[in-house]
């Protein structure tokens, strides 16, 4: 599982201040920490970056590449800022990653030529003209439309990372199963395409202490259906360890619970909590903040 570190984010007080002041030290410290923690890509998330994005993105790219050879994901809704960042991008072992291109003509018609010009991979975000797809079939239709346009622009499926959009478990529980169904279909729809997601979206809303078990469990569930990468929290050491194959016992119990209902009481608490979390994600039990206590 490839991990894209999510913490170089304008929403962080420390990083936001550093970006505003053009202070490289906190940014480079964050990058080195993410690399030491096992991240495979560094996501540079500037948010909308409407005011000064075209100057800020290339500055951040240069600042980050002074201290790492990891590939970067350029993450902003400012299309011109993406292009300016790619202009100064120093070649890495893997191509840069544009995060992201929506399945909306007004976005992809402008952004696909940029990806093609700079030989960049891109995240294909299944957010269409009507917003979030209602089910796996709508996701599939958007995927076919966007990948067809990318192929017409000379971009191969292998350079496209499909993001079907993870939703919060506490308000859109049923969408989590639909997303897994979509990823089961992906190689039939787009042979050779990669996949990714904003993993922590699943736990956006539940209490902070419940976020790691939700993120870890869903990552394993998605990986079973071919998930290639996730955008993840570098500080979650357990999640990183699971992603890198260091906890096969956790993977085994999650997959067993996916196949059929399992009596959680037969396991020690750590593994039992993963079983209970699978039941919530699959909709066997309704979500509540106390699901681990039941």
Report the mean per-residue pLDDT as an integer: 97
Please tell me what the overall shape is.
globular
The percent of residues in helical segments reads 40-55%
If strands are numbered along the chain, what order do they take across the biggest sheet?
A: 7-6-5-4-3-2-1-8
According to DSSP, the number of beta strands is 8
**Low-confidence runs of at least 5 consecutive residues:** none
Q: Alpha-carbon distance between the termini?
A: 31 Å
**Might you state the CATH topology name?**
TIM Barrel
Q: How many strands, which pairing sense, and closed or not: the largest β-sheet? A: 8 strands, parallel
SSE-based structural type: alpha/beta
Q: Looking at this structure, what is the CATH superfamily? A: Dihydropteroate synthase-like
Estimated share of beta-strand residues: 5-15%
CATH secondary-structure class: Alpha Beta
Question: Which CATH architecture is right?
Answer: Alpha-Beta Barrel
Number of H/I helices:
11
Radius of gyration: 19 Å
Give a structural overview.
Helix 7 (173-189) links the parallel strand 6 (160-163) and strand 7. With 294 residues, this protein is of the alpha/beta class. The mean pLDDT is 97. It has helices at residues 13-21, 24-36, 53-65, 79-87, 105-117, 136-152, 173-189, 211-224, 237-243, 248-259, 269-281, and strands spanning 2-5, 41-47, 72-76, 97-102, 121-125, 160-163, 194-195, 229-232. The radius of gyration is 19 Å and the shape is globular. The longest helix has 17 residues, at 136-152. Helix 3 packs parallel to helix 4 (79-87), helix 6 (136-152) packs parallel to helix 7 and helix 8 (211-224) packs across helix 11. It is built from eleven helices and eight strands. The chain has an eight-stranded parallel sheet. The chain has a single domain, classed as Dihydropteroate synthase-like (TIM Barrel, Alpha-Beta Barrel). Residues 1-263 form the Pterin-binding domain. It comes from Desulfosalsimonas propionicica. It holds the Pfam family Pterin_bind. One of its GO terms (cellular component) is cytosol. GO terms for molecular function: methionine synthase activity; methyltetrahydrofolate:corrinoid/iron-sulfur protein methyltransferase activity.
